[in-house]
Automatic annotation (TrEMBL):
Residues 50-173 form the SprT-like domain. It comes from the Eukaryota. GO terms for biological process: response to stress. It holds the Pfam family SprT-like. This is SprT-like domain-containing protein. InterPro entries: SprT-like_domain. It comes from Coniella lustricola.
Length: 193
């Protein structure tokens, strides 16, 4: 767990030109141009998630997630137990994403399936950082599952290694932007104004 987090930290320190390009892409998705009208921003659909995935895998995880992570969306009203929940109105916990682990079908080791809450994450009353933050949160779980297997489930998946990687990504982007260190973030912090 801590060894996997240390590998992320080492990889971040060795920035390469290719990684710099991925950093620009991910930062542009997190912070669309300030002059753009919020309502005309392109939606964060599966194509955008592909870009986020590719960028995050190169920037933080040194390509370890390639062909080992899949994702899907829940349908309206479908809920499941989760590793990623957020507090919304009245302090009610709402599940917005979770990661499932299984033995890899095509390779040795493990692969994951990230399931994202369509009703919450596609709700336009929240800004795009909620979806990006949730997706990155689940990618951290995926990385630790792929590196450590079922042992990464300790502490509800929020192990010391998870917390360290979340902290590294928050530092990379600037504290208060993605809030990955907030295991249960307040949905209201992601509301559009």
């Amino acid at each position: 767990d801590r060894e996997a987090a240390a590998k992320v930290e080492q990889h971040l320190k060795r920035a390469k030109p290719k990684v710099k390009q991925h950093e620009r892409i991910l930062r542009a998705l997190i912070h669309p141009k300030a002059h753009a009208d919020k309502r005309t921003d392109f939606p964060l659909d599966n194509a955008a998630l592909d870009s986020i995935f590719s960028a995050a895998d190169e920037i933080f995880f040194n390509g370890k997630l390639s062909r080992r992570v899949h994702w899907d969306w829940t349908s309206e009203g479908k809920h499941a137990s989760s590793s990623s929940s957020r507090r919304g109105e009245g302090g009610v916990s709402r599940i917005i994403g979770y990661t499932a682990l299984r033995k890899a079908m095509q390779k040795d080791g493990y692969e994951t399936l990230i399931v994202l809450s369509s009703p919450i994450l596609k709700d336009t009353s929240y800004n795009r950082r909620l979806l990006i933050s949730t997706f990155l949160h689940e990618l951290i779980h995926s990385y630790l599952f792929i590196c450590n297997g079922f042992e990464a489930r300790h502490c509800g998946g929020h192990t010391p290694g998870f917390k360290r990687i979340a902290e590294l990504i928050d530092e990379w982007e600037g504290h208060g932007t993605l809030r990955l260190c907030d295991i249960e973030a307040d949905l209201d912090r992601f509301r559009e104004e």
